[in-house]
Amino acid sequence: YGGSSTFCHFSLAMAEQCLRGEELRARHQAALLKLRKKALREKARAELAWLGHQKRCLENLQDSKGASAMAAKQCKILMELKQEQAEIQHLQNIYRAAHQERKLLLKQQRGILMMRHSTAQLQEKLHNLAG
């Protein structure tokens, strides 16, 4: 397994390619979560503005029950926003940790392959010296 120099170079190149692919996937995932966070904020902002408008209209009509209901809906939207943001943050943390773990594994694989390559070269030199 470790004796073929070509195989070691191929395996090393594959490990490097995997690492680059993993970094690209991590950037894409981070960008998607960032977009999700932004869309969530914009949606909540629009809903809160609409409910605020409805609440003011109801207050102008002196409908305190309706205004209270709108205020309750605003609170609910804010709570849902906070929950979604916490979920996104949790996902970001999970993805970041998993990315770091995979990156470390790939770097260790690269190190192992480099050691095998060095060992194969030394064995080849010893074989040439002995021959």
Automatic annotation (TrEMBL):
Q: Which residues cross the membrane?
A: none
One GO MF term on file is:
microtubule binding
Query: Would you name any one GO CC term?
Result: centrosome
The biological process GO terms on file are: microtubule anchoring
Among PANTHER family, the record links this protein to: CAP-GLY DOMAIN-CONTAINING PROTEIN-RELATED (PTHR13958:SF3), CENTROSOME-ASSOCIATED PROTEIN 350 (PTHR13958)
Q: What is this protein called?
A: Centrosome-associated protein 350
Give the source species: Pelecanus crispus
